[in-house]
Amino acid sequence: MDSKRLTIVLLVLALFTGATIEISEGSVYNGIVLFLAAMILFTRLPLAGFTSLRYSKLYILAGLFIVIADVIYNFSTNNSLGTLDTMVFFLGLSLVALGLENQQIQRLGEFGAYISSTFIVLFLIFYIIFGKLNIDFLHVFDHYFILLPTVKVLEIIGIPVEIIATETVRLQGVEDMTIVIGGPCSGLYSMFLLIGIIFGYSRVEKLDYKMSLFILGLSIFIAYISNLFRVVVLYLTAYIYGQETMMMVHTHLGWIIFAVIAAAIIRFIELKK
């Protein structure tokens, strides 16, 4: 991949990741701007091995149905839009893009469909199906794989912290506060998104099967370690500057770190190809 093409890939990953997190946790306006910028950049990216798809009208109808159905469901149940809704919208728009005549837009749609569908499947498995089967994976993961390791880091560097619940710690810095480690803080959303990006990139770029599996495993490991680093940074921010500043950093720090990780992994793929 030439330097110009690689630069576009890295910018798209950064913008799309930021858009997803901003829409679900930060500013919807900022998220929309980042998302549109990512789409515009991606249409300028020449992807190898792409062929036009047939039955375009069916893709358009399916995409519109998905978007409208999600809007109607949330409106009828008075639910606020969340990360899953963002990815459902993205899947619907990707299918619409697949049905258009412009091949560059179709490229965007194919990549987007891989990303969004992968995220949705993983979300349904870990957050819906596991819940229905009474598999307490999320609380166990948050406690043993996120909370305990990060608390241990704070204890090593001498920051007073107390575990008061499965996913909650008490931190005494500039103010006395409790911090819940769960939901977005678990890092699973970012991990799902990273898996979707790497899977989509490997499919569109026609990467070797074994290489794709290796990159996916490496991506998950790096994403996990990076999320531990992010949580520790949030602890330190809360300890030094207070909870309000921590929440502001929480909204933006995650997708910035994640974008850097995704960029590094894509660069690694290019070196190994």
UniProtKB/TrEMBL annotation:
One of its GO terms (molecular function) is peptidase activity. The keyword Electron transport does not apply. Keywords: Cell membrane, Hydrolase, Membrane, Protease, Transmembrane, Transmembrane helix. It is found in: Cell membrane. GO terms for biological process: proteolysis. It is a multi-pass membrane protein. The chain crosses the membrane at residues 31-51, 58-75, 81-100, 112-130, 179-201, 213-240, 252-269. InterPro entries: Exo/Archaeosortase_dom (IPR026392), Exosortase (IPR019127), Exosortase_arc (IPR022504). GO terms for cellular component: plasma membrane. The keyword Transport does not apply. This is Permeases of the major facilitator superfamily. It comes from Methanosarcina mazei SarPi.
